């Protein structure tokens, strides 16, 4: 009898606790729901201020392209300061001038990949060198006004190689976290790839592959590396270096906590979600 009571009471407590957490994680009071459910955004036409009709001006209605522009503008304070755009595309206000950056690159510096109606993954080029490139990624959700953005950070590992003699070598992996780590995103598989060549021919370097969690946050799932540049096992940037040694992905409790679903609980032996 008492066990049934405590089980019931515990379920009630967990219900209200998870509801509280859900509300806290939900839409703040300063946000309001939008009716925007776009599946495609092309910069700049779908993400800029343009001429408005008198009715829209009078009613102060925000257009999707304007909401997008405001979101990108608010995200700028979080962007890394050591990317190429800081040298070639800063405006007088100290922010990135995307049009100037486009003129420098000869192509659009920013792209959007659909994650569902009104949800996107944004991509911004950080640096491009002779044989390596890295990009910045962020989540963009225009289902609210103002739209919500989140700069993504990627967990990876820096390799060091200590060779004492021909028969003895020790490879160490040092954890790092970066927001400009990724070479490219594969929309067909929804994966991020970080492939860093130690030299142009691609016979040595490090390779990291990430998949999205339920919250669309990156989860490291594959590590490969070849530290000796010996002219063999060369790969291009769009290939998987399948013959390179694969390393086990270390368990990362910080990443696990960031991806855990706090809005579910167990009740009477069954998993339920709010």
UniProtKB/TrEMBL annotation:
Instruction: Supply the alphabetized keyword list.
Output: Membrane, Transmembrane, Transmembrane helix
Q: Where are the transmembrane segments?
A: 6-23
Give a yes or no for keyword Transmembrane in this entry.
yes
Does the UniProt entry include the keyword Transmembrane? yes
Q: What is this protein called?
A: PF06674 domain protein
Task: Name the source organism.
Answer: Leptospira weilii str. Ecochallenge
